[in-house]
Amino acid sequence: MLSRLYNGLCMHKREFAETILNGSKAIDCDTMSLEDIRERYEQIHGTLEWFNSKKARILAEAVFYASRYRSPDRYRLISKVLLQALEYGLDYVLGRVSKDARSMFNRSRRVCMEAHRANGFIRLSPVENANGRFMVGKADFQHDISDLVLRYFARRHRGWKIYLITGNKINADIEQTALTAQTACYLENSVVKTASLANLPFDPPGDEFDLLWETYYESQYIEGRKNLALARKHLPQKYWSWVPEGNKLK
Amino acid sequence: MNLVQKLSLLGAAAKYDVCAASGCSSGGLSGMPSPRSGVCHSFLPDGRCISLFKVLQTNSCQKDCFYCPNRVQRDIPRASFTPEELAGLFLEFYRRNYVEGLFLSSGICKSPGDTMEQIIKTAEILRYRYRFNGYIHLKIIPGAKPEYIEQAVRLASRVSVNIEAPTAAHLQKLSKLKDFNDGIINRMKWINRLQNGGLLPAGQTTQFMVGAAGESDAAILKTTSGLYHGIGLKRVYFSAFQPVAGTPLEAMSPATVLREHRLYQCDFLFRLYGFKLTDISFNQDGNLPEDLDPKLNYALNNLQLFPLEVNKASYSELLRVPGIGPASARRIVSARKQFKFNTLDELKNTGVVVKRASPFVQINGRYRESYKLVQQLELWRDSVDYSSQRQPRVIFQGSHALTSV
Ligand code: SF4
């Protein structure tokens, strides 16, 4: 709506740095509320009944995930698709008829897929000490999903604080910027924070439980159905270091 | 026997059971693989996923199933988990995010009642002592009494009784001690009645052992269709028979994974595409052609229905086109309210596999006059030796669909 109102590209302030635009065409959307934008839009272009519909929620969900796709043009693509929704209707973009809509939904799907795999493949080790109860895992994400994953595990393990140890800078939203060595991320009041490994409230745990898992994993394999290509398709090499059994797919 | 040894033995004994934690959670609004939907936690070198901790309570069994590694006549180490042991072990796997839920089966030790008691105790410990409210799939032992079934149904997210074979006569070839009608089908009906009372969020399932009783695919699919429509099963699974040394069927050839795959494709056509048993074409021996996808086979046998105009065809008609699935059919129907499809690319953007679909559709009155597509269509018959075949033949004007050469 903003793009159509002002004939420009809307972004959050910090995202200007990511774009190759010279800034003059960009609109800082942090300066306006959604209701104001909608009111102005409806004055000029007519009412937006669909804005409250289930279909709009579907689009909103896709936009939510696509906005976490790491690429310099992520917001530009989303703006284009939203403009198409305004111009041709929601069904047009939800049907992914245009290349842009298809591309945005594909990005959204990839982000979902990464979050989905992270939820499955991250292994957690419990640690309990005087500072509290912690579940510690290791992960590196390609897209901006650390908060989604931390929230997922927080819901699954109520009463435990979740820490994910990562090797890279994990999220542009995180207050610290120059992180290159291993760090840990965790949630504090629903916001993702990071800490260096030296400042963790626990010693990084080892887990003797791995032996039981390996025993179980080996017990499930059926030699007569061996299909390494299929296994690698579902558990790509990128994740092999996350799971103890990763080396069995080499 | 220590815990690791028991785990190795009782895990391996359950590996032929097929399971999926589906049906307990849905994907996202937009139909994408949502981070909320069923999670796979690992993949085996055979390509199967591990999402549940799949294990037997005991591998001691008094039954004689001819294909089974746990059959009573087999001289193998026997072990059992106590309910406490098993519940504790599962919970440790779950906490560490190795698995999403429990799939608990068992050999029939002493009697069906005794075995069900152990299974139920394990589930009770998880539900009441550990307050685990995640996914639990419990096997119902054939011949179990109604009170045990009711208790299991109250505790589980999903239950299943394995049917193994499509008819009583076929089951007779696999076990002299199992009773098809009373022990299995009647139990399924009881479960269905309980489920209709609002229990079992993930429904009831069953499993066929494919290829061990000399049954045909037609027989399996006939029973499958009956189970869906008559007893309200949520899913039917197929497990390709693998011979086990030291069993009466050890010399039999294994069933191919491709046969299992074709059965699953038909199962999807029943559940998601609105196909009926009569829509499926079989070879003369009653088996599905292994070299041809059943939906493509349907299209080739019903050429009079094609080509379909994508701008006009109904949702259920679109579902009959090879290369168009429920998601893309939905998108097409919804998008064309305000838009007319003109190109294959637009169709492709909606998720249609145009390579497969294009011989069977028209777009705005036009279709692709590409002979390459005709050849491609024929190439899907994986096992055909093309060097020895004549040229493929166009069946009728306006369609590139072919008869077999
Ligand atoms: S009942 Fe039959 S299939 Fe089940 S464990 Fe016993 S022998 Fe095996």
List the main descriptive attributes of the protein structure presented here:
heterodimer, A: about 250 residues, alpha/beta, 2 domains, five-stranded mixed beta sheet, two-stranded parallel sheet, globular, B: about 400 residues, TIM Barrel, 10 strands, binds iron/sulfur cluster
Record the SSE blueprint.
The complex is a heterodimer of chains A (250) and B (405).
Chain A: H1 2-6, E1 9-11, E2 26-28, H2 34-45, H3 54-66, H4 74-88, H5 90-94, H6 99-121, E3 125-129, E4 132-138, H7 146-156, E5 161-166, E6 183-188, E7 191-196, H8 210-220, H9 228-234
Parallel strand pairs in A: 1-2, 4-5
Antiparallel strand pairs in A: 3-4, 5-6, 6-7
Helix pairs in contact in A: 3-6, 4-6
Chain B: H1 3-12, E1 42-43, E2 49-50, E3 52-56, H2 83-95, E4 101-105, H3 112-129, E5 135-139, H4 146-155, E6 158-160, H5 168-172, H6 180-196, E7 204-210, H7 217-231, E8 235-240, H8 257-272, H9 294-301, E9 308-309, H10 315-318, H11 326-335, H12 344-349, H13 354-357, E10 361-362, H14 371-379
Bound molecules: iron/sulfur cluster (SF4).
